[in-house]
Amino acid sequence: MMQTAVAQGPETASQKGHPKGLSVLFATEMWERFNFYGMRALLTLFLVNALQFSEAESSYAYGGFLGLCYLTPMLGGYISDRYLGNRNCILLGGFVMGIGQLLMVLSATVYAGSVETARLVMWLALFVIIFGNGFFKPNISSMVGSLYPKNDNRLDAAFTIFYMGINMGAFLGMLICPILGDVKLTDGTRVVSAFKWGFLAAGLAMFIGTILFYFLKNKYVVTPDGKPIGAKPTFNPAANTTGEADKAKFTSGAILGCAALLVALFLTFHFVANDPNPIKSWIYPFIYATGISLAVLILTDKSISTVERQRILVLYFVAFFVIFFWACFEQAGSSLTFIADKQTDRHLFGWDMPPSFIQNANSIFIIIFALPFSALWLKLGKRNLEPISPVKQAIGLALLSLGFLIIAMQVKSLEGGAKLGVSWLIIMYLFHTLGELCLSPIGLSLVAKLAPARFSSLLMGVWFLANAAGYALAGTLGALLPPNPDNYADAAKAGVDLQGVLNGTVSATPEILSKLKELKLSATYPSFAGFTIHNLFEFFMVFVILPGTAAVLLFLISPFLKKWMHGVK
């Protein structure tokens, strides 16, 4: 395969810097992330305000959409590795996602005439975007790894640069699409018809990135001797100089066994969920079951050598810990946004910052620190001081935990109805960003280093699925947020002493429970792993303990993982 050829490229002057193909992939991914995050910023608002979804329904739809977006890369990676190649899958996925955004524009145009028609078009649009994403997402990341020899010490730096492109696109998308699509009049009335312009901007960004890749790929996304990277797999044993098998070999028995495992896991997750919402009780279990089953299927390939198997298992171990990182990190879009909205003084230098904007601090810090981190890994590598990838990721988890600890200490010191200063949230996001730079791009690089060539895109899909599992867990953890002062005030207006009900000093009569249900409030404090969450300090300590514990465990097993990496750093 072409990835194998790249791995054995000769040392050239170009290896002193980075291949020009990295710039092409950087720009392509930047425009795609503009498209994805711009649309993502508008989706739930569009569902509630135009398509008449409840907030709960829109959250489930959003979760199912995001989860499937991180599941389909496994299928897209498999098709790429066996049939189409990275290039064709990127082009196919890019154009399909662009079409999906145009369908969102159509839905946002026809809603006034028929909400039901607009809903049908919206579901079709999401399906099309999910399908296109499955082909695009694993292959663009896989091609970054293919630009370099297998053990090139520039890989971590390359993925850090690539990750900066992801965040530049995300920041621009979350800035421009809401400006065009999330419009309110001076009296606070939302201009629902404006959503289509935000979706149109997202679609145009996707087409720009795909067209850019189409015209520049042959000139720049090549090996040092000019051979195309990511072409259709040839499965030519004579061309394989690394000793890796060219083609995955799954027996019919292995496929049937994993299919049975998928069904068993799906039914287990489905009955454990036991939820009336079809997305939560059917789609989520399908995502979890499929991910685990496909990960198992990879290990059944008879062509996998002992070294390859151990390297793949290292990826699985690290992916497991990554779940806890994203489960805590992704509070940015849920609980942290609610806290920014209701319990934070957002005034900064005379500006009352919108609560949804505060999480953009992450993208800004990524843009600022991505290149310095890239240089740091290169400098440490030259001095033989660079830590192995699992240790870097343990550091990332520790920094995430530290960010939450800073906030936990601040909210503990607040008295009465005092609000958290927005500067503390920004400092927290700084530590989260530093942790992300130690973990996420390094994880992408680790897949490129450890994955056998014939499984490169498929294992990239497995990695993304670990992210998806983290996002699902993030929803569960975000629901642990205790009542805020506004909740107590709303309950008091309805004649309910919420504090007394929660503490057990006031009996929760049927009438009180009915009023709380109308207010969408619980009569009990949230609890997690047997511990009751009474206040924000205890809430944030959950996010100190989870990634902190994961960091310690990952650091402790890193020497064991290092042996199974067989020389890969």
Helix and strand layout, with pairings?
Blueprint: H1 2-7, H2 21-49, H3 55-69, H4 72-110, H5 115-146, H6 155-181, H7 195-220, H8 252-273, H9 278-299, H10 306-329, H11 335-342, E1 344-345, E2 347-348, E3 351-352, H12 355-358, H13 361-382, H14 389-413, E4 420-421, H15 422-450, H16 456-478, H17 485-493, H18 498-503, H19 510-518, E5 527-528, E6 531-532, H20 536-565
Parallel strand pairs: 1-4
Antiparallel strand pairs: 2-3, 5-6
Helix pairs in contact: 2-3, 2-4, 2-5, 2-6, 2-7, 3-5, 3-9, 3-16, 4-5, 4-7, 4-16, 5-15, 5-16, 6-7, 6-13, 6-15, 8-9, 9-16, 10-14, 10-15, 10-16, 10-20, 13-15, 14-15, 14-20, 15-16
Protein name: Proton-dependent oligopeptide transporter, POT family
Family: Belongs to the major facilitator superfamily. Proton-dependent oligopeptide transporter (POT/PTR) (TC 2.A.17) family.
InterPro entries: Dipep/tripep_permease, MFS_trans_sf, MFS_Transporters, POT_fam, PTR2_symporter_CS
Structure explained in plain terms:
There is one protein chain. 72% of the residues lie in helices and 2% in strands. With 569 residues, it is an all-alpha fold. It has three domains: 20-220, MFS general substrate transporter like domains (Growth Hormone, Chain: A); 250-302, no CATH class; 320-482 and 525-569, MFS general substrate transporter like domains (Growth Hormone, Chain: A, Up-down Bundle). A two-stranded parallel sheet has the order 1-4. It has a two-stranded antiparallel sheet with strand order 2-3. A two-stranded antiparallel sheet has the order 5-6. A hairpin with a 2-residue loop joins strand 2 (347-348) and strand 3. Helix 2 crosses helix 4, helix 5 crosses helix 16 and helix 10 packs antiparallel against helix 15. Mean pLDDT is 83; it is low at 1-14 and 236-241.
